[in-house]
Specification:
The complex is a heterodimer of chains A (114) and B (111). In chain A, 0% of the residues lie in helices and 59% in strands. Chain A has strands at 4-5, 10-14, 19-25, 32-38, 45-51, 56-59, 62-67, 72-77, 86-96, 99-104, 108-113. In chain B, strands 2, 4, 5, 6, 9, 10 and 11 form a 7-stranded mixed β-sheet that branches. Chain B has a 4-stranded antiparallel β-sheet with strand order 1-3-8-7, with no helix packed on it. Helix content of chain B is 0%, strand content 52%. In chain B, 36% of the residues are buried. Chain B is built from no helices and 11 strands. The chains are: A mainly beta (114), B mainly beta (111). The A-B interface holds A 4, 6, 32, 34, 41-46, 49, 89, 93, 95-107 and B 4, 30-31, 35, 40-45, 48-51, 56, 58-59, 90, 92, 94, 97-105.
């Protein structure tokens, strides 16, 4: 049972436009959410996060929105750049003692075209 | 500035062979993790170690064992490899909750 879902396997956006990546979750115990970016042949790298007590977090061109009632979060990239082309993973955290167990979505491949 | 180092980067095994994937981090992190990535499945947690001396099962632990050798090193062992274990394996570590730092991965094929 997939607790974190990214229903769009791929997304193509023109350079300079907004990219919106979506993520849904089912476990109400999740209290921290993250986005990771992954280039081919590399490990995922942390991009941006949001706590469940907030509904928005912004970092430069990247903004994450959280709608707890809908169990939905989204990542906005404005403006999109060719270097943003990568696979984006949504992740949700359930803290267990002194460690965090992240549950990842299946990823959305973003292609930013010229 | 190495971060998380995984070895080997590529490996081909025959069914039934054993091997150990090595992982080391130089960031003085307490927690370390092993994930596998499969097409259409995202990253799934195999095992994790909250701190030196402790290990716990993740979502898909069957067929694997781990050892937290010291604070820096966390190894993953396949005792008898199966084709279903063909995957890309990522080691990660964190000192602050949630913000995992990942290695570059090991691509494993089991024939």
């Amino acid at each position: 049972d997939q607790q974190v879902k990214q229903n769009s396997p791929s997304l193509s956006v023109q350079e300079g436009r907004i990219s919106i990546l979506n993520c849904d979750y089912t476990n109400s115990m999740f209290d921290y959410f993250l986005w990771y970016k992954k280039y081919p042949a590399e490990g995922p790298t942390f991009l941006i996060s949001i706590s469940s007590i907030k509904d928005k977090n912004e970092d430069g061109r990247f903004t994450v929105f959280l709608n707890k009632s809908a169990k939905h979060l989204s990542l906005h990239i404005v403006p999109s750049q060719p270097g943003d082309s990568a696979v984006y993973f949504c992740a949700a955290s359930e803290r267990t003692g002194t460690a965090s167990k992240l549950t990842f979505g299946t990823g959305t491949r973003l292609q930013v075209t010229l | 500035n190495a971060g998380v180092t995984q070895t080997p980067k590529f490996q081909v095994l025959k069914t039934g062979q054993s091997m150990t994937l090595q992982c080391a981090q130089d960031m003085n992190h307490n927690s370390m993790y092993w994930y596998r990535q499969d097409p259409g499945m995202g990253l799934r947690l195999i095992y994790y170690s909250a701190s030196e001396g402790t290990t716990d099962k993740g979502e898909v632990p069957n067929g694997y064992n781990v050892s937290r050798l010291n604070k820096r090193e966390f190894s993953l062992r396949l005792e008898s490899a199966a084709p279903s274990q063909t995957s890309v394996y990522f080691c990660a570590s964190t000192g602050v909750f949630e913000k995992l730092f990942f290695g570059s991965g090991t691509q494993l094929s089991v024939l």
